[in-house]
Structures are given as structure tokens and as C-alpha cells.
Specification:
This protein has one domain: Cytochrome C Oxidase, Chain A. It contains 15 helices and 2 strands. 73% of the residues lie in helices and 2% in strands. It has a two-stranded antiparallel sheet with strand order 1-2. It is mainly alpha-helical. It is globular, with a radius of gyration of 22 Å. Pfam families: COX1 (PF00115).
Length: 469
């Protein structure tokens, strides 16, 4: 690294980024295994430990807590140092956060296949692990905000606003949603019941997406997109509007998952209205990032890192269109609880989060290790097209499966009887589930090419001394 880089603690950042890349491959490979099990149930092998119900939370936890949280922790600590022109608040604390989080992930790998689960979406880990999560998260918050307090610059760069929001909101909603009464070791019961439990769960579940997979990634991208484009943020003012729009409206939108339920109608309506309002700040922020890249059109034509970032923005627009669409009652009646929702989630998770993470890895890892260029430009091109083929095939297959499935469930004869049986609905969507498996294989194959490319890059002798990350 250059003399300027030597002022900052980048070793801990390297560990977080490598862990994130490893968990991206692990978590998404488990997802491919699950997709295969849905089409070929025999792949459960009659084992209680690797059947769908136990591997599925391991997949979501591996992607969210392994890939995304490691990525956000590492990049947030780097960006806080660089934009504040200061060192980390405490280096020993940084290592405690890193190893504490890896311990949590290890405990998840052990406990979830053994069947220890709260059965709450994105919050399956049992109470002893939850307590450890809270402890490590508090240490992370102290580390991040302590670093901001040490800054030598007057202002706080907008990326840090988004990181601060994701740290604070995730802490708040995680603690409330996971309030439970322990029955014995590794078994607890929620303090909430019935409709209350559903409301609190989707307050958490939707905002885990909103503040981990959205606000945190936006903060990361507001730093790396201008770096990749060699241009400043198109509109710094619009980025602040983007921030307050998300913070103001996102936390209210979760109840659009509870339409046509026993939850009070006025609570459902709040979720509908807030979801529709979210279109404005979401697309405003996407416009800001896209215009930042388009300021350097010449580079955008040939730079695949910029193209990955641009693709992520397109999928962000798509995902933030689908969410409010799902909040509309007539569409919710057809699509909710069907494969369409899975397609929606993965157009965001693979398209927005995955593409953003991939772009960050390609841009950041060579610079962290002081390398001049990627080992293979051909491999990144292959990865780009494999990733796109994977996301598009995955989303389109499940959109078709979900809409068809939803109509078949609702179809009635003149006397009110259901026209289609459950088995007929399953037979209809079976080919699309196979395409979903193929799509997952393509996306993970692209990740493998990325790992090969980046490992070769790090091991290459060429050194970059001219440009900072």
C-alpha cells in the first residue's frame, strides 16, 4: 500500500472482506443445493440434518450474516477511516468484533442443521446466540461511532450516514423481535403472540432487508461507485434526501406482508401507503448512483466493475418496484406466498446485493493488496454474463411460476369448488423450479471464477503505488 494507506488499519478490513467473499460462495452454494432439493426431493437423503427445513435458514443466515454483514463491517470501518482521515477507534476492539462475529457464524452452522431454531424469518438463531449477537453488535457500534468521533474532517461523509442508520436500526429491531423467555438451553418462546408476533416479526424481517441489504449497501456504494467512476457523487444533496426518505418511510412498510391476515386493517394500510411512498426515495437514490456512473460514459463502456455497479442499480430499481407492487391488494392476493415472492427476493438479493458485492470485491481487493490490475480481464467478462444469466433466469422463472401458481390457487368453478388441486399446481411450476436450479448454478459458477481471478490477482507480483482505494 502507499504511504497514505499506511495511516489506516487495513489488515482488519482484509479479514472482513475475505470472510465476506468466502461466505458469499458458501451461502449461495447451499442455496443451489436447496434449489436442487425442491426439484429432486430425494436429495434430502432421508436425513434430518440436511433436509430443506434445516438448510434453508442456514442459507439465509450464511448470505445475510456471513456475506453481507462481514462485507458491511469491513467496508464501513475502512470508509470511516478514509473519509474521516483518522485511524480506527481501537484496533483490539476491531479484532474482538471480527472473531466474535465468526464465532456466531460457526454456532449457526452447528445449531441450525441440528434443528435449534426459533422458526422466525431471518431470526432463527436461539437465545444464547442472540445474546452473543447483541454483544458483538454493541462492540461494533462502539468501534464505528468511536472512529467517527476521532475524525479530523468537519463533515460526516454520506456513506457513514447510511452505515450509522443500519447499525442503529438493526440493533433496535433485532432486540425487540428477539425478546423471548428461555425455556431451557437452546429453546425459547417469543414474548409476543398471535397477530402481535406477526407484526413485530415483519417489522424486523422487512427492515432487515431495508437496513442491512439496502441502507448498508447504499452506504458502501456511495463510496465505491464514485471511486470506480473517477467522478464525484452526481448530487450530494440528493444522497441526503435519499437517506432521510429511506429512514423516514422504510420502517413502516413491513406490514404489507400481512395483507389479508388477522392484523388490523389500518395496520395493513400503513404498510401499503408507506411501501408506495418508498418508490420516490428509492428511485431517486438509484438515479443519483446511475448518473454518477454515467458521468464517465467512456469508461463505463469497457470497465466491467462499473458495469457490475450499474447492473446492481438496475436490479435495485426492479426490486424496489416489486416491493410496492406486492403491497397493492389485488396483486398481493395473487402473488403473496407464491414463488413470485422468492423471485422478487432474489432479484434483489442476487441482482442488487450480489452485484454490488461482486463489484466491490473486484474493485477493492486488488487495491487492498496493492495490485495494479486484475489477473484476468476475460474471467471478469465471463463472470458478468454468467451473473446476469443467473439472475434473469432465476427471477423470470419464479415470476412465471408464482403468477401461474397464484391463479391456480384462486381459480374456482361456478359452484365455488377449487378447479386445480395442490398436486396440479406443483406439476405446473416444476419446470420453472428446474430453471431456478440452473440459474443458481450459473450464478455460483460466476462466483467461483471471481474467487480464482482474485486469488491469482493477490498472488501476482505486480504492485500498484499510484492510486488509493
Amino acid at each position: 500500500m502507499t504511504e497514505i494507506s499506511a495511516q489506516y488499519n487495513v489488515k482488519i478490513v482484509k479479514y472482513f472482506v475475505v470472510a465476506a467473499m468466502a461466505w458469499a460462495v458458501i451461502g449461495m452454494t447451499i442455496g443451489v443445493i436447496l434449489a436442487a432439493q425442491l426439484y429432486w426431493p430425494v436429495l434430502n437423503f432421508d436425513s434430518q440434518y440436511i433436509q430443506f427445513g434445516r438448510l434453508r435458514p442456514l442459507h439465509t443466515s450464511g448470505v445475510i450474516y456471513g456475506f453481507v454483514v462481514n462485507m458491511l463491517m469491513g467496508t464501513s470501518l475502512y470508509i470511516a477511516q478514509r473519509t474521516g482521515k483518522c485511524e480506527l477507534f481501537n484496533q483490539s476492539l476491531a479484532w474482538m468484533v471480527f472473531w466474535g462475529w465468526q464465532l456466531i457464524l460457526l454456532l449457526a452452522v452447528i445449531s441450525l442443521p441440528l434443528g435449534y431454531t426459533t422458526s422466525k424469518e431471518y431470526a432463527e438463531l436461539e437465545w444464547p446466540i442472540d445474546l452473543l449477537i447483541v454483544l458483538v453488535w454493541v462492540l461494533y457500534a462502539v468501534l464505528f461511532f468511536g472512529t467517527l468521533a476521532k475524525r479530523t474532517t468537519k463533515h460526516i461523509f454520506v456513506a457513514n450516514w447510511f452505515f450509522a442508520a443500519f447499525i442503529i436500526v438493526i440493533a433496535m429491531i433485532f432486540v425487540v423481535n428477539n425478546l423471548a423467555l428461555p425455556a431451557y438451553f437452546m429453546k425459547s418462546y417469543s414474548v409476543f403472540a398471535g397477530a402481535q408476533d406477526a407484526i413485530v416479526q415483519w417489522w424486523w424481517g422487512h427492515n432487515a432487508v431495508g437496513f442491512l441489504l439496502t441502507a448498508g449497501l447504499i452506504g458502501m456504494n456511495y463510496y465505491f461507485i464514485p471511486k470506480a467512476a473517477d467522478r464525484p457523487i452526481y448530487s450530494y444533496r440528493l444522497s441526503i434526501i435519499h437517506f432521510w426518505g429511506l429512514v423516514g418511510f422504510y420502517t413502516w412498510a413491513g406490514t404489507h406482508h400481512l395483507i389479508y391476515s388477522s392484523v388490523p386493517v389500518w395496520v395493513q394500510n400503513i404498510g401499503i401507503v408507506m411501501s408506495l411512498i418508498l418508490w420516490l426515495p428509492s428511485w431517486g437514490g438509484a438515479f443519483n448512483s446511475a448518473m454518477t456512473l454515467l458521468q464517465n460514459k467512456q469508461k463505463l463502456k469497457t470497465d466491467y466493475i462499473m458495469l457490475f455497479f450499474f447492473s446492481a442499480i438496475i436490479y435495485y430499481c426492479l426490486a424496489t418496484f416489486e416491493g410496492p407492487l406486492l403491497a397493492i391488494r389485488w396483486f398481493n392476493m395473487i402473488a403473496h406466498n407464491s414463488e413470485w415472492v422468492i423471485g422478487h427476493v432474489h432479484s434483489g438479493a442476487l441482482g442488487w446485493v450480489g452485484m454490488s458485492g461482486i463489484a466491490m470485491f473486484y474493485y477493492f481487493i486488488p487495491r487492498l493488496w496493492g495490485k495494479e490490475q486484475l489477473w484476468s480481464s476475460r474471467l471478469i467478462k465471463w463472470h458478468f454474463w454468467l451473473a446476469h444469466a443467473g439472475v434473469l433466469l432465476y427471477a423470470v422463472a419464479l415470476w412465471i411460476a408464482g403468477i401461474g401458481e397464484g391463479y391456480m390457487w384462486l381459480a374456482q368453478s361456478d359452484n365455488g369448488e377449487l378447479i386445480y388441486s395442490f398436486v396440479e399446481a406443483m406439476n405446473f411450476k416444476a419446470p420453472w423450479l428446474f430453471l431456478r436450479f440452473v440459474a443458481g448454478v450459473l450464478f455460483v459458477l460466476g462466483l467461483v471464477l471471481m474467487v480464482v481471478n482474485l486469488v491469482k490477482t493477490v498472488r501476482s507480483p505486480a504492485v500498484l503505488m499510484a492510486k488509493e482505494a
